[in-house]
Fold these 2 entries.
Entry 1:
Amino acid sequence: MSGLWGLMTEEVRRPEQPAATLWERFDPQVLAALGSLELKARYLVEGFLTGLHRSPFHGFSVEFSEYREYYPGDDLRHLDWRVYARCDRLYVKQYTQETNVRFYLLCDASGSMAYRGRRAWESKLEVAKLLAAAFTWILLRQNDAAGMLTLHGLEDRPELVRPSQRPSQLGEILRRLARLEAAKDVRLATLLDYAGRLFHRRSIVLVFTDLLEDCAELEPAWKKLRFQGHECLVFQILDADEIEFPFDHPAVFEDLETGQRRRVRPAAVRDRYRERFERFMQEHRRLLEGLEIPLCLVRTDQSPWQTLGEFLSWRRRWL
Amino acid sequence: MNVAFYYPWIWWAALAVGVPIWLHLVRRREADLVLFSALRFLDDQPVARARPLWPRDLPLLLVRVLAVLLLVAAFAWPYLPQSQPPPEVVQSVVYVLDRTLSHQAQDGWQASLGQLVRAVDSLPAHAQAGIVLVDTVPRVLLDLDESPREARSRLENLKPGFGRGSYAAALTLAAAMLQKAIGEQHRIVLFVDNQANQWQEDAQTIPFLKNVSIESAVRPTPPVLPNVALFGPRAERLRTAQGSHVLCTAQLYRLGDVPQASVEWRVDGKLLKQEQVAFTGDTSLTLLSAEFDLPEDRWLTGEVVVTASPDALAADNRLFWALPPQRPGRVEAWVQSPYLLAALSPDVWENQWQITVGQVDQVASDTTVIRPHVMVAELGQLRSQQLRERLAEHISAGGGAVLFVDSVSGPAGLVLHQLGVASVTEVQPPPDHSRIGYRYASHPLVQWLSSGEWGDISTIRVQRYFDMDVPEASPLVFLEAGGAVLWEIVRTGRVFLMAMPVEATSWPRHPSWLGLLDGCMKLARPEETRLVEARPGEAVRWHLGEPAEERPLMLYGPDGRAGQVAAEGSSVMFTAPDEPGVYTLRHEASSDVVGMVVVNPVPSESQLQYVDAEKARAIYQQWVVTGPDERSPDRSRRLEGEASILSQRWWWGLLVTATVLLCVETVWLVLRSRP
């Protein structure tokens, strides 16, 4: 059985599926076949949650949410004995955790984000939009307030969606994300600068970018955000072509942001390219480490579920 | 070589070569361009030009450019102008040659043919000539753009025709040809025999010849030529008390002062009867008949030949007929009258009708598996509802019925109501008006009964009959008093309704009684067409009744294959041969006869009565209309240019080469796009 339905039903029947195979079961073709961003995000999140078998968003605190079947290992304190007395079946009470954390999603729409390599299942911008949508979904389900800041190429002013816990917030953010397109004159430094000016209360800022900008230009903006007390988490979205430079034949390369063209013989420059690329990224990593900003690498040729997992584990630690 | 172009402005389209050049300069380059996001790490590499200066894939570019140029050149219509201007075409002439049967009279065909050949030969050098034949369907023997030198050989190979055609139709075709003619003068020259009935049938045609002069090359003929001819052949198998035999009839036509004629009857090539016919007074039509005892189980073909002197037209002296083998028809009878029981005795109709007389009280158990062709019943016998339903189903399925009205009440009334009888009244005619007095003469049944073979049916008396009002029926036989006693109702099936009890008439004691029953049953029997009569050259569509087999059908004549037959479902279509005769429709390489086609001349062609030249001129001059010439001044030059361009082979070569180049380009791209 294949496809979304197969993915879900199979997992329900075999809850002890090893996590390693879960990543392999991500099907980019299914994702591409889904029309809207909302469906894609839902596929991503629900497929991921079904695979994990146990939802991490249900705690046992204050507000009752739902019943679920008892699994060996569950705390016996949460068993509902009344239901057991009536139905002769073991059910566990679940509660929804209440938080008041405010999240901002920053989606870099610079020209380089439009790149899509031969092995990628989507362009970098599309992956960024999908992850942003999936995170919004998750955050709103656990009563966190989600907002978004984006910068369109031809507009001077940034587009801000103020954080909110309302269910309608998801639709609002998805609509804005769907409209977002890569533009040559959009810079991440400008976006971060706007964020520093517009975010007043302490928040968690999730940044989706490829970080293909000079480190020196970004440094003041990162520092400003951190000094204002915001927690930042950077999802660096890169294509395999950018990391490995696997091109074979001599060709003319045109820059997506500047339009500059260079005649390149890839075999001759591959090693030098990788070395310069690694050095460039090393600078960013060093800067972000110094500011205690976690960096999560997302490859467009790999499953985004891994990213979701890393984010959730980080979120748990942070809480 | 000095090449000129008919449409030189089309060379502007040659600018289209810019498209492939642009493609090779820009688009092909784009294919090798990589849009990349991390060019900052390659900033030490040499800068590339935004646009290349030299196109790539030069061979492919050349193929494309050449294809475009050849296409443009072809549509610019190049031609080789002659050093001297083409001679002006003075006149365009269309000769109309009458190829109908009547034109053979007194060797008129050969005379006109020779005259026409001489006329074409004597045409001036710069004249166009065409020839149209007056045939069953008018046709072009020589088109205007063909060389007049072709005319002689075609005319020499032309055989005389046996069909009949319309002068007006042939002139219409000639006028259509002249519409495209390039001559300054348009002429039509008639080589026709001026047969009176041929001119008269088109005399009321509205004018349709514009700016055309018509001349007639008709040699003078007397107003009437003596002629004998045969037409209207009919052959039928008859059943009388003495047995079965074949009755052949034909009409002998005499025109002019012909004292006598000799008639021969041949069947399957054997002479069976010879007789002399003496014409008296003004008799112009004589009914010939002959009876032969011939086998019933095979096809019969025959001919009637007449010889007489003087006779201007010998080609209409033979008449052909054919008769399919007798297939016994199945009859189911529900009768009680002794007259009917005797008449429907199986002994009487041996090999002709297989008659089953049903018992009314055994209807339930009598389940006839094979459906009868005809049901014969006295209405009073249809007491069982099952029997009435069977009759209704039989008629609605296309079967025939012969019904005798012996009662109008009860079950008989129901049947009459189903047959559409609106009202019925029983009538006793006065004794002095009780005989049969009037007949629907053109109905085949009445024609047959009135042929004299069966005696005088006006002696038959009727004591009592039922006066009926049947809106959808045709009355066939009436009493002197006026009431109809025999009706025909045609629905899906055909029904003959005898509106009198059998005991109340003297018909069963009349010699025509068996003939009446036979005729009614024959006409009521669903048609099984296996014989078609056609005119020479006529287009025939024939419904065979069953889907044609996969094997092709052919038409065979006495000299072998005579024509192609196109099959479409259960129908076949073909053109009847020109020459009269009996033709067989068979599957290729099979001896089984599917059907026969009898081709006989058209009777009106035998009426050798002529109009004089002045009267003919008065008729065809009515068809001519004059008016301003709408032709443009350079029309003739343009038409000539088009004709000469289209006839240049190398002009077509341009188109073919361009197409081949485009195909090469496509294959090239496909092969290159494969991994």
Entry 2:
Amino acid sequence: MKITEKPVAFYPEFARKSGPHKETTHYCPGCGHGNVHKMIAEAMVDLGINERTVFISPVGCSVFGYYYFDCGHMQAAHGRAPAVATGIKRANPEAIVIAYQGDGDLAAIGTAETLHAANRGENITVFFVNNAIYGMTGGQMAPTTLIGQKTATTPRGRIEAQHGNPIRMAEIIATLPATTYVERVAIGDSKHIMKARKAIRKALTNQVENRGYSFVEILSTCPTGWKMDGPDARDWLIEEMIKIFPLGVYKDEADHREGAWHRPVEPFVPAKRDAYLGADEAEAKAEKLSLPAELHCKFAGFGGQGVLTLGLFLAQVGMRADLHASWIPSYGPEMRGGTANCSVNLSERRIGSPLVDRPNLLVVMNQPSLEAFAGQVVEGGVVIVDTSVVENCPELPGRRVVRIPATGIADEVGTPKVANVVLLGAICAATGAFPLAFVEQSLRETVKKKDLVDLNLAALRRGYEHVRDAV
Amino acid sequence: MSRKFMKGNDAIVVGALQAGCRAYYGYPITPASEIAHAASQHFPALGGTFIQAESEVAAINMVYGTAGMGIRTMTASSSPGFSLKQEGLSYIAGAELPCVVVNVSRGGPGLGNIAPEQADYFQVTKGGGHGNYRLIALAPNCAQEMCDLTVLAFDLADTYRNPVCILADGFTGQMMEPVTVPLARPVPFDHTSWCVRGDAETHRNLISSIYLESEDLERHNLKLDEKYRRIARDEVRFEEYRVEDADLIVVAFGIVSRIVYSTVDQAREQGLKVGLLRPITLWPFPSARIAELAARDVRFLSAELSTGQMVEDVRLAVEGRAPVHFYGRCGGMVPGSEELLAEYGKILEGGRS
């Protein structure tokens, strides 16, 4: 097909097109895409937007949209144009983004992307060219193929009981509250084309004015796919398709939405990010402490007792002491049985496995944990037991068992929630790994709610003193 | 420098922010969801974009749109979700767009479970989607690397206009360690010549992977291939520990490399001369170095959380010049030190043939 009187939003010559004929389109005679392209190009010129437009070509006959429009182009995977459009518009809200899609692309393989972009109210324009057939792949059934219509995959015609019904996208999309403007138009004769031109212009104007998501469904012809000549195809479009796909405005809230859908973004400012994350070039002021011995610890109990937080407290004490530190919650089959546990390593050397399968420090806050992990403790290791909860705590040959009624002590201090901090105090006393004052300072920095700092410090000291005095 | 104690998954977001990433698109999936949680908090706070997409497919195509504008962008997921992204990755590689994708891999196949596995090695290093393309694949093994390799990933993506994958696992994602937050630097790339920003300067550019004529598509493939050869030559990264005199070189990445690292000294105390070679780039794979090491009297062991994937690359690198053994656990089972030491003993007692 030859396009006469080209709008300037078309390239003067279609240089990207392969083959010798750079002045004609690749579309078949009688195809509706040429009409629709021309109306879009005219609107782009009238609105003065072609240089800031990004046109997304779908998979289908209009995959080569970039042959024609003098604007930015991205070609998208089948059905994904609305997602690609989202990625463009959200990254640069000043770009004018057009998703141009056929019926297979928009209403079959890309239904999810279509509905959700509409449901988010993306400030984009979707042109849906519905010609009731798959053109490029050779005339197969489309989601919009009419009942009785013969295609390459419905040789006996589309049957409701087998293939379902033609899907009405404009009606569906109009139900979504975030959409602004939804209209179905047609080509085929000059009366319909005039309405279509107006709808296309309005849909683009909406975007320029940040009025939100616009969807224009354009009933179009495919003489090749329909196996008709041009005039018959135009007649079939007007006489048959419009019956199933009624024309009209399904939704128009553009008047209430000027500017409402502009979603501004900011450029990347390195200094702002450094400030936000607290990144600086200052020398670390960590106090370097040496460990009497590497600590490979396991903390275990019921969920909610704070064993994971206890591990985290100790690991952060280690980090403050400029040690290598790792914390990892329970893993694999150990996760079963309603117990929570974590592994912590503290070392002056680089830490290999963060998993602790042979701890030299075990802290348990319930009976099942003691039974599960006591046997893994290495010889010479320390086992700290909350005897408020664990009733049966036998001696463990070759291991030092430290008994402390941590939950009871925590109760006395104010709340059983700080039983884990009582145990942190017990760890300090039992292992001698860190001076109490150092751990106190660490807790002051770690505890997020400042009104709870004193409570935590009291719990820490009580746990420390209990073990120190028992020795 | 300030050190913060953070999860590997959070460290990825910190790295992305400091690398100048401006848009994050994702879909919830365990054990990668913390990345989306952190991104939803930080990206909007800094004037960036966060969208919880309707699907993994949509998320990777949103990445395509933003990447096509020459803006740093990323997505993250876990194994089943990463499978869904393959179509988008093929298009992104075909259109030569820079982006970062994170796979905090879990147990498979199918729904599998949420425990750590390394069974996505094939998918990540051999392409995954259709056509001739490669992902640059980085395998962090600690929280600091989750951050630093994310920064590197963005630079590699921009340098080569290619998607870069961070292949982590449930452990490296969930584990907390001290992380020194790197300073943010301006992004030193100008993509005006090819990107489509929706402005006058770039409005004649085209982002596409369609080449209708066979000659054109072959030319495009050869151009990509030339790029992949350059990457294979210039971007191999690995780390070694006591390989120089080793009788057994264990090849391991991610969490397994941490466990193996712990066992090297223990093995030597037992008289077993073991060393560790840890690929940091899974693609390009450190084949040349492995080939060099294979020239002497040595054995290799590929230790993985899979039924044997990376071991194929080790064998290809060794080219039959040394015995290559495999030891793997999967489904979330992880080899302990004693288990690995027993395996080393068995291999080395087997002696030389």
